[in-house]
Amino acid sequence: MRYINGHLPPALQEDRKWTKLMLPALVTWAGSLADPWVIPDQDLMRTLRIIVTTVSPGFQDLTAIRPRTAIFSLAVRRLMVWRSNFGSTTIALVAHFLASSPGDDTEAMDPTAIRETCNDLLDKLSFLYEDLDDQKPENTYQSQFVLQLLAHAHMWSCVGCPDIPRIDTDTLKAHGIKGALSLCCAVLERAIRLFQRGDVHVDDQISTRGKATAKTPLKLNRMTGKESSSALAFSEQNWGACTRQYFMSVSRRDHPVLKQIAMMANTLVLPAMDALEDCSLQGDQMADELVLSAGQRISV
Asked: What's the pLDDT tens digit per position in 14-26?
């Protein structure tokens, strides 16, 4: 059965608590995990029960929060969408950046120029560093690429997270971003490599209005003769190991450093709650901000 919000208990639908409070808390928690790709059912069930009973104290039917129930299934779906959004958002942002690189339009869209730009970004993983300067390790994970993605693919989804002491949301909001930051790093590397290899083309990712728009990258399956998105997808199968490797590096950063990164990303989060449901507007603004910031601060 495919559940919708209408299948939720009335107490969770009241005042849109599920959407406005509970899901932001869930994503905030997920962004702190060592492996955001694989979350054991028991851990998710326990956290959901804490979130639901804290936000809605009158709700005491804990049997309604377990695998194959509406609450659990909708939570799993939200986490799937959260992870998927990293992939689509990054493709659009990197495409917009490459299309807006210095030079005339013909030069900027030239495959050789794009490949060289991607090579520069991947060299010593410079796309992770502020000003692309890998000689300053203290500035790792502070590039505009990372900060923009962390802000809009993760922190934007956390807006509205209430205070839930039993999962220490105050601390999570301050610096509990290790899992989300690891996803940012892995998905950025994936996007840049897709453009570098020519698996994705810039002109396919830019709308006729010049705005970034994500189109699913496809690859020919030689066995079936059909194009498939799975081989190039941002998925646990393809990028789980890479994400976990980045997490090992991120984990070596102490809390003050992570707090600084979170604060820098938070300044990029659009404050207007009305825009939360307008994904196209949000995507255009993200892309424009990335290119503007990159043009001011980095030169590839």
From this structure: 999 999 999 999 9
